[in-house]
Amino acid sequence: MGMVTFIAHDGSSQTLDIPDGTSLMHAAILSGVPDILGECGGSQMCATCHVYVDAPWLALLPAMQAPEDGMLESATSERRAESRLSCQIVMSPALDGIVVRTPPTQV
Ligand code: FES
Fold first, then answer.
1. pLDDT digits (tens, 9 = 90+) for 69-88
2. Domains (ranges, CATH) in the chain?
3. Ligand 1: which residue has its CA nearest to atom 3?
């Protein structure tokens, strides 16, 4: 299990305790986190799970692969250096406490 905090663009936040091996997108959908839509179910085909990962955690994530990189180019909100698809972030002991921020819009 590990903790993840989603911070919305309005400053509100929601912290979840999720099992290792679960994607942040999947956990967010199950818990009704606003602004995470996950329309493609995690197959890197929609970018509606776009998040901005807080700096200390960004370096701990696996390197971005081409499909994720390409899909982020079509994200509705601004792509930043800390942009990732939350369906590609899988909880592990190293990520316990991760903080991500949701963009102003996903569609
Ligand atoms: S859920 Fe569609 S790209 Fe992540």
1. 999 999 999 999 999 999 99
2. 2-101 (3.10.20.30)
3. 44
Residue labelled with tokens 């329309």: 39
Q: Is the CB of 72 under 6 A from ligand 1?
A: no
Residue 47 Cβ < 6 Å to ligand 1: yes
For the chain, helix, strand, coil in percent to 5 are 25, 25, 55
For 70, the token pair is 């390409």
DSSP state of 48: T
Global confidence as pTM? 0.96
State the distance from the centre of ligand 1 to the C-alpha of 1, rounded, in angstroms: 22
pLDDT of residue 76: 96
